[in-house]
Design a protein that fits this description.
- The structure is a single chain.
- The chain is an alpha+beta fold.
- The chain has a domain of 86 residues: Double Stranded RNA Binding Domain (2-Layer Sandwich).
- It has four helices and three strands.
- It has a three-stranded antiparallel sheet with strand order 1-2-3, covered by helices on one side.
- The model has no long low-confidence stretch (mean pLDDT 87).
Amino acid sequence: MNPNDIHWPEQAVQIRTSRASGAGGQHVNKTDSKVDVLLDLTQVQDIPAHVLEKFGGQLRAISQRHRSQPQNLRDALERLRQRLADAWDLPEERVATKVPKAQKRRRLADKRIVSDKKRERRGAAPE
């Protein structure tokens, strides 16, 4: 299933509004344009277990970029969808690789050269 096809029930979403912070003058001080959306993933069907585990059963998005509450609500819901889509696919497992023998030999030879240089700098031990 594609994460963009997920539809969540209304009771799974909590929407809170408050006054936004930052620049905007009197408009910011008077209107509740900031939107905080909390999605309860346990009430949404077809969510993979690794997504539930990653987010701990809840996913939150906050938006206060726009001047209007409806725009911020759309923005917050889009962020929720994007975060779900990003977490949907499992990361590919890493294949362990070995360092090639020639590279190991070169590294050890370089270390030996540096070691010899430092030993020569020390000079003879005082008697």
